[in-house]
Amino acid sequence: MSTTEVPKITESLEGTRNDELERIRYEQSALRAMYQDIFTIEEVNEDVFRVLLPGTSKDFSSWDEALDYLRTTLIQETIQNQKSLLSLPIAFPHAEVQFVPLHDVSNTPIPLEDTHAINHKILSILAPSIRKQTSATQTYDNSVRNREMHREGPLYQFIQEYLQSEPGQKLLHHLHIPSVRSLTPKQAMELATEIVLRHAKYNTNLRAIDSRIDKGTVLDMLEEGRDNIHNPQWEGNGVCRNFAGGVQAVFNTLKSNQTEPFNPLKNTHCLYVSGIDHVTKKHHLRNPKTSHAWNIFLTALQHAETEHTSITVSDITQELHRRNERPDTKPLLDLTALRSVNIITRLLAYEKLEPEFLTRAVDHVLQQCISGTAMGSTLQEKEHFFLSQALWLLQVQKQYADIPHTLAEKLFHLSMPHGAEIDSKEKNALQELAKTHGLQELYNKLFPHPMAARLQVLSGTKGENT
After folding, report:
1. How far is CA 5 from CA 1, 2, 14, 18, 371, in A?
2. C-alpha angle with apex 292: 286 to 296, nearest 5 degrees?
3. How far apart are CA 391 and CA 201, in angstroms?
């Protein structure tokens, strides 16, 4: 090696080292902006990087090892601490799906660099409902064609202008958002929805496909709302399909404008979903149509060997109607509990569950009979719908004897007002429950033998005459 080559090698090594130091400083700055020193990585010396977490710390020999430990720890804490209505395992690949109400979505950002794909089985289950490029999604699709959602694009400029206004500043304060460039999944879901809510008015005259709003973009729709929201003569700027597409567009815009290199929204996705809003008949949600549209938020995280997918369902149109017509009633934006039933029934059609998880699933479905809102149906229709879904789960899983006796009794007691509406398959499921749990007396009460019923009527008539 010549003496002239040595300085060149030294310069190259120094350049590589300087590039590495510059990357570390850049990523340290990004972490500081994200966590405000709640979670940090300190450089103790050239070969020691210390991860500082509340109440603990750990040293590593490289920045990348320390960063990976911080990321893994936050993913684990998010999965363990996030409250869910129901968690169900998926056998292959090894995965778990959680139904998480909006108010319980994790509010801790995770420094994500790589995108983790949504579990393919979850996507296949949702596939019949997920938006496809049709006439119903024109508003969103037009925004895609116009490149409105790109980084620093026109839709982001609209968002920035609104958030700098007095109402926008109050919204950021209400949602506890210090920086729109570093949002947690929960903050992004709430912010995207609120921005559309505050620029939307439902217009029944725009229900027909190919309306003037369908022919425009999401930005056009929001600008019309901004310019007319206080005008009492204004008829409105859309219907459910436009507003759901608007939420998806605003969310994706916020996502594309997060501070790099760590984007906490990288593995959170907003989907446009169409289907039946009410639950008057059991087949409605199994074969969704395009009569209503809402949003599903999915967050995919990988921990150890398990893929974790959390699902949150929001319905901007239901909340918009509530705010305008019944402002003193319970918010209707989060409909995770109600709309999870459709996803659960699809999932369990292909996935065999252990008795413990089947019990949880059936009990969760039945809980919707007791609580919640009819959502366009009578309470009688709503109860029968969820009852039929619970019985359907037992039919496909064929584990009648494995559910608790108390749950079997609960199914019968909830069935009592619906004896005349129960179909043959549901009746067979109840018959199996009666056999395996010794509930024949309840079964006979629900479905009295025709001759016994006739004798009971005659006996009652005779008693009245004497």
Report:
1. 7, 5, 14, 20, 78
2. 75
3. 40
- Of 262, 272, 210, nearest to 26 (Cα)? 262
Residues 222, 243: Cα–Cα separation, whole Å? 10
Backbone φ and ψ for 212, nearest 5 degrees, come out as -65, -30
Q: How many CB atoms lie within 10 A of CB 290?
A: 17
Scored b (16 or more CB within 10 A) or e, 223-253 reads bbbbebeeeeeeebbbbbbbbbbbbbbbbbb
Ordered strands of the 292-303 beta sheet: 86-90, 95-99, 306-314, 292-303, 268-275
Q: Where are the beta strands (DSSP E) in 316-463?
A: none
Q: Is the pLDDT of residue 420 over 80?
A: yes
Q: How far apart are CA 378 and CA 375, in angstroms?
A: 8
Inter-residue contact 80 to 263 (CB < 8 Å): no
**Which helix (H) or strand (E) is 296 found in, with range?**
strand 292-303
Helix axis angle for 185-197 and 166-174, nearest 10°, is: 140
Query: Reduced to 3 states, what is the DSSP secondary structure of residue 314?
Result: strand
Q: Is 184 helix (H, G, I), strand (E, B) or coil?
A: coil
Taking the C-alpha atoms of residue 235 and residue 241, their distance in angstroms, rounded to an integer, is: 17
- Give yes or no for residue 20 having a pLDDT over 90: no
Q: What is the pLDDT of residue 287?
A: 38
pLDDT digits (tens, 9 = 90+) for 265-300: 999 999 998 876 444 444 444 434 457 899 999 999
Handedness of CA 449, 454, 457, 459 (dihedral sign): negative
Q: Are 299 and 313 in contact (CB under 8 A)?
A: no
The pLDDT tens digits of the residues spanning 385-395 come to: 899 999 999 99
- Taking the CA atoms of 105, 108, 109 and 111 in sequence, report the sign of the dihedral they define: negative
pLDDT of residue 332: 87
Average pLDDT for residues 173-187, to the nearest whole number?
94
The CA distance from 85 to 365, in Å, is 11
Residue 404 to residue 409: CA distance in whole angstroms: 9
Q: Per residue in 348-362, pLDDT tens?
A: 888 889 999 999 999
Beta strands 95-99; 268-275: pairing state: unpaired
The secondary structure of residue 304, as a DSSP letter, is T
pTM of the entire predicted model: 0.87
* Whole-number pLDDT of residue 18: 81
* CA–CA dist 288, 244 (Å, integer): 16
Handedness of CA 230, 235, 237, 238 (dihedral sign): positive
The C-alpha atoms of residue 49 and residue 62 are separated, in whole angstroms, by 6
Task: Say whether 270 sits in a helix, a strand or coil.
Answer: strand
